[in-house]
Amino acid sequence: MTQTTSAMTTGAEQLPQVHEPRNEGVPLDLDVVLSARANTSAIERRCATLPGRRTVKKDYQAAWLARAISCIDLTTLAGDDTEARVRRLCAKARQPVRADLLEALGLEGLTVGAVCVYHDMIPAAVRALEGSGIPVAAVSTGFPAGLSPFHLRVAEIGESVKAGAREIDIVISRRHVLEGNWRALYDEMRAFREACGEAHVKAILATGELGTLRNVARASMVCMMAGADFIKTSTGKESVNATLPVSLVMIRAIREYQAMTGVKVGYKPAGGISKAKDALVYLALMKEELGDRWLRPDLFRFGASSLLGDIERQLEHHVSGAYSASWRHAMA
Ligand SMILES: O=C[C@H](O)COP(=O)(O)O
């Protein structure tokens, strides 16, 4: 049965600032890691019901979409990125929706959660975001494959932090998961976290390359034990990126880690999320599985390059009653 989801306050600017303590990590506990399981058919059944189970309409929908915007890591990760493109993206990050729409919705001051770029684009992004409070996130450690020499991957993190990145999205070595070498994954993640210093670290699992949902559950737990502030599904470059089943597994691992340690770890689905209606499903999933606390940008992000355009289009429809062409909502 369809259920109408309750109201959500609009806009990040209206949320009280909450600062969770960082995840310091815990010693690797192989018993806990190996006990992680995933019942694929039950997970798929649960996910199949999600898109139809909850609907948000009218003002509630606009509020949920505004919240989704505040949780976007607005991303450009292309070989042909230029400083000009990054500057345009940052302008969009500062004002994600047309001024007249923001005013009509009472959402002045709304921004995205962060701007996510490759290392070389950090200085341009930092300059373009100055004074906005929007952090720059950098992908790192030989993104996307993570197969460069280990010492270079660690050094890359340090360089990106020095250049001004306040968030670092690292990629794990998928082979450690595929070979069941949980100690190696833990040690790698700990070294990456240490190199981040004060910068928050998101661990990209590249779930589309991990083979099984059980591996996803175990890798999530190991990365959290090693101190990941966020766990993130994908680089956006795998053939399969964020999916609902993978999300359910990772979110439940976050819940288990919190039950075990009291620490809240963030979640970032990334890759292939480009429609406003999909964003609403992810928000509903977070709300149902982890609760409202995970609907804020310090614990939830979408890694997305084009989602914002579709959300802006839906908000324009909400205000004016008409849909505009998608090309009118270019990102950069
Ligand atoms: O982390 C973010 C992803 O690379 C973005 O992927 P996307 O271009 O499919 O939205």
UniProtKB/TrEMBL annotation:
<dbReference type="InterPro" id="IPR013785">
    <property type="entry name" value="Aldolase_TIM"/>
</dbReference>
<dbReference type="GO" id="GO:0009264">
    <property type="term" value="P:deoxyribonucleotide catabolic process"/>
</dbReference>
<dbReference type="GO" id="GO:0005737">
    <property type="term" value="C:cytoplasm"/>
</dbReference>
<protein>
    <recommendedName>
        <fullName>Deoxyribose-phosphate aldolase</fullName>
        <ecNumber>4.1.2.4</ecNumber>
    </recommendedName>
</protein>
<dbReference type="InterPro" id="IPR002915">
    <property type="entry name" value="DeoC/FbaB/LacD_aldolase"/>
</dbReference>
<dbReference type="InterPro" id="IPR011343">
    <property type="entry name" value="DeoC"/>
</dbReference>
<dbReference type="Pfam" id="PF01791">
    <property type="entry name" value="DeoC"/>
</dbReference>
<comment type="similarity">
    <text>Belongs to the DeoC/FbaB aldolase family. DeoC type 2 subfamily.</text>
</comment>
<dbReference type="GO" id="GO:0016052">
    <property type="term" value="P:carbohydrate catabolic process"/>
</dbReference>
<dbReference type="GO" id="GO:0004139">
    <property type="term" value="F:deoxyribose-phosphate aldolase activity"/>
</dbReference>
<keyword id="KW-0704">Schiff base</keyword>
<keyword id="KW-0456">Lyase</keyword>
<comment type="pathway">
    <text>Carbohydrate degradation; 2-deoxy-D-ribose 1-phosphate degradation; D-glyceraldehyde 3-phosphate and acetaldehyde from 2-deoxy-alpha-D-ribose 1-phosphate: step 2/2.</text>
</comment>
